[in-house]
UniProtKB/TrEMBL annotation:
Gene3D superfamilies: NAD(P)-binding Rossmann-like Domain (3.40.50.720). It comes from Croceitalea dokdonensis DOKDO 023. InterPro entries: KR_dom (IPR057326), NAD(P)-bd_dom_sf (IPR036291), SDR (IPR050259), SDR_fam (IPR002347). Keywords: Oxidoreductase. Coiled coil: none annotated. It holds the Pfam family adh_short_C2. This is 3-oxoacyl-(Acyl-carrier protein) reductase. Residues 6-184 form the Ketoreductase domain. Belongs to the short-chain dehydrogenases/reductases (SDR) family. One of its GO terms (molecular function) is oxidoreductase activity. It comes from the Bacteria.
Length: 245
């Protein structure tokens, strides 16, 4: 098992890519702390337990700095370490530039960018103390190439990539790696409302002519969170079937 005895925090772990990450990490031997505002996280934790894995669910928003700080302290005090932080929580509120409201801008910035900052800032003291850590954050190929109607989302994902590269420089001497993953079009609940005809058109635009499943993305997180990637830091791993080329 590639994550045997590791303690991993996964934000946004209740659905989609986050759910796939959570289940894969537990299968690979990690104790997984699921953070999400969606109650489905409880069911994910129970399902993992029935399979012999270890997981717990905590209903906390990544934008709540005080709650995140308390929770991370509790995790560290309980387990004696925090090995892995997966910053996966994210939302969309799409609108063209001229129609996008300030609340729509702020909501996406708060979760996708500020939330990543809050969680990473909270975990770093523990990782520094143990001289070990893996931080992997959710970017998007939209952060590399932009996308119509996603000014707010694209800005956050480009920001995640830049923050990860900055943390590589600041934290590397403590044995901490920081990387980002840029998924492409993935069949999750986030795209469930897209008409089938449009989904097929998107697939046709992808060089591999198919969309990703959440597990396709989760395997990238597994690699970067594992000791196999001990010398990999400051990268953005694009998993998008060749779209952002």
């Amino acid at each position: 098992m590639r994550l045997k005895d590791k303690i991993a925090i996964v934000t946004g772990g209740a659905r989609g890519i986050g759910e796939a990450i959570t289940e894969l990490f537990a299968k690979e031997g990690a104790t997984v702390i699921i953070i999400d505002v969606l109650e489905e996280g409880e069911e994910v934790a129970k399902r993992i337990a029935t399979r012999g894995g270890k997981a717990s669910y905590h209903s906390v928003s990544v934008t709540d700095k005080e709650a995140i700080t308390r929770l991370f302290a509790s995790v560290y005090n309980t387990h004696g370490k925090i090995d892995i932080l997966i910053n996966n929580a994210g939302i969309t509120k799409d609108r063209t530039l001229e129609k996008m409201s300030i609340p729509e801008w702020d909501a996406v910035i708060d979760v996708n960018l500020k939330g990543v900052f809050i969680c990473t800032q909270a975990v770093v003291p523990y990782m520094k103390a143990q001289q070990y850590g893996r931080i992997v954050s959710a970017a998007s190929n939209v952060g590399l190439r932009g996308n119509f109607g996603q000014t707010n989302y694209a800005a956050t994902k480009a920001g995640v990539i830049a923050m990860s590269k900055t943390w590589t420089m600041e934290l590397g001497k403590y044995g901490i790696t920081a990387n980002a993953i840029a998924p492409g079009f993935t069949l999750t609940d986030m795209v469930a409302k897209i008409p089938e005809q449009q989904i097929e058109a998107i697939k046709a635009s992808i060089p591999l002519k198919t969309a990703a499943q959440p597990l396709d993305i989760a395997y990238g997180y597994l690699y970067l969170a594992s000791d196999e990637a001990r010398f990999v830091s400051g990268i953005c791993l694009t998993i998008d079937g060749g779209m952002a080329r």
